Every structure is written in C-alpha cells, then in structure tokens.
C-alpha cells in the first residue's frame, strides 16, 4: 500500500480519536501539525514567524484545534484544506479586532475590498466551503502548473501521457512515492530537472524503459506528494483516484 494512502487512514483515525475526547491524541496531532500551521500562517502574514514570539502562530494553532472539531467528511474537502480555510478566517478576524495595518494587505491577498471580508461567510459553513474550496483548488492548480513548467510539462501533455490502466498507474505512483520520500533524490530532480534513473531502478526494480516512458507522470505525482502541505487538494484527489482503482481491482478479482 502506498505511503500517502496509509497516511490518510492514520489521519482519519486520529481525528476520530481526538473528537471522541482523547486529549493525548489531540495534543500529539496538534504538535505534529505545527510545521503545516507555520507555513500557512507565515504565507498569510508574508513574513517569517517564530513559535513563542508571534501571536499569529498561536491563533493558527487554536484554529487548527477548532478545525478538528468542525471537520466533517461530507464536506468533501481534505482535512488540511479545510484547516487552512479556518486558519485564514481566524487570522482575518484577529487582524480586524487588532486593527492592524496588515489587515489591508491580507484582504488584498484574498481579493477582498473594504469591509467585504471572507470571514463573515464563515457564519454559513456550507457557502463558505463552496466559495473557498473553489478558490483553494484554483490557486493550487495555478501553482502546480508553474512547477510543472520547470520540467517542460503541461497539464495537456500530462493527461495525454498518463497510463490508462490501473496497474500501470499504481506502479508509477509507487515510484513517485519512493522519489518523494527521499530528500536526496528530490534534490537531484529539482536541480537537474530529470529523474534519478539509476537510483530509482535500484530502489524499485522497475526497468529503465518503463521509468522513461512514465517520466512525466512520475514527476507530476512526486511534486504533489513532496509538496503535500502546499498541494493539499491535489494530494487528496490523487489519493482518491488511487483508492478507486484499488477497489475496482478488488471487485474484478472477486468476480
């Protein structure tokens, strides 16, 4: 089973335990989320922040705790994308109460003007989710396209070159997961803009021909997996596609 699928199951279990009142699980989970919170809050504030020194990080941690309680699977968005929305909303509310100069810059970064603040929409979660999820996915896709361009890959030729059969996709996804899990190999990829073929052949046992043929798919998937905190929605989508394929294969085996 692929690493990111196992992570999803572990996440689901931790959220369930935390909501059920297991404070130890909740505290451990919140602690493990600090790097994610730090990235989100620093990006919103447009500066480097430090735990224990900047109130914004504490607000982000409180928002993450709130997200644990409010998240529902029927929202049909990944938990961390949902949490990112809550953090944004709470920070906007915080800046409004503090009446800081940063508020105008923050609203501008969200495409808001004057008193039309997106946090007001949070009062109605369903509408807020529809609006923010669309914005989140569009923003992720734009960033993803820019990263793909560095490897001379477009979304169009990625779709055309993607394997049609589940077994082929699973093999390439496994390779992408191996690549994304190794910082040294990812550094090689990012620096040279090509796959570390010899290392991947050694680690996966997959032939050079298969790796070269699946180059675009492997790189595209590895980018999503390696930058999972940046591409939360895309990672969730990749995980769901893999699960659907696995379920279909199980059904075929039973039949």
UniProtKB/TrEMBL annotation:
Keyword Transcription regulation annotated: yes
Keyword annotations of the record: Cytoplasm, DNA-binding, Sigma factor, Stress response, Transcription, Transcription regulation
DNA-binding interval(s): 197-216
Motif (Polymerase core binding): 55-68
Subcellular location(s) of the protein: Cytoplasm
Family matches, as InterPro entries: RNA_pol_sigma-I (IPR014244), RNA_pol_sigma_r2 (IPR013325)
A molecular function GO annotation: sigma factor activity
UniProt GO BP: DNA-templated transcription initiation
UniProt note on regulation of activity: Negatively regulated by the anti-sigma-I factor RsgI.
Gene Ontology CC, one term: cytoplasm
Subunit structure and binding partners: Interacts with RsgI.
Protein function: Sigma factors are initiation factors that promote the attachment of RNA polymerase to specific initiation sites and are then released.
Listed HAMAP family: Sigma70_SigI
Family: Belongs to the sigma-70 factor family. SigI subfamily.
The protein's name: RNA polymerase sigma factor SigI
Species per Swiss-Prot/TrEMBL record: Desulfofarcimen acetoxidans (strain ATCC 49208 / DSM 771 / KCTC 5769 / VKM B-1644 / 5575)
Upper lineage: Bacteria, Bacillati, Bacillota, Clostridia, Eubacteriales
């Amino acid at each position: 089973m692929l690493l990111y699928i196992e992570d999803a199951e572990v996440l689901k279990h931790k959220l369930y335990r935390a909501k059920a009142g297991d404070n130890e699980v909740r505290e451990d989970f919140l602690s493990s989320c600090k790097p994610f919170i730090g990235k989100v809050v620093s990006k919103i504030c447009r500066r480097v922040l430090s735990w224990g020194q900047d109130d914004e990080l504490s607000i982000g941690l409180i928002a993450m705790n709130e997200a644990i309680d409010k998240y529902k699977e029927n929202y049909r968005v990944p938990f961390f994308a949902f949490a990112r929305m809550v953090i944004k909303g709470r920070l906007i509310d915080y800046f409004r109460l503090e009446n800081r100069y940063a508020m105008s810059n923050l609203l501008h970064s969200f495409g808001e003007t004057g008193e039309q603040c997106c946090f007001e929409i949070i009062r109605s979660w369903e509408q807020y989710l529809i609006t923010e999820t669309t914005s989140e996915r569009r923003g992720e896709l734009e960033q993803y396209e820019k990263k793909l361009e560095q490897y001379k890959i477009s979304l169009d030729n990625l779709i055309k070159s993607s394997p049609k059969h589940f077994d082929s996709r699973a093999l390439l996804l496994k390779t992408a997961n191996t690549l994304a899990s190794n910082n040294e190999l990812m550094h090689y990829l990012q620096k040279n803009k090509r796959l570390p073929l010899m290392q991947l052949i050694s680690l996966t046992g997959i032939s050079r021909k298969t790796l070269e043929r699946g180059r675009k798919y492997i790189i595209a998937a590895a980018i999503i997996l390696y930058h999972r905190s940046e591409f939360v929605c895309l990672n969730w989508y990749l995980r769901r596609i893999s699960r659907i394929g696995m379920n279909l294969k199980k059904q075929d085996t039973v039949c």
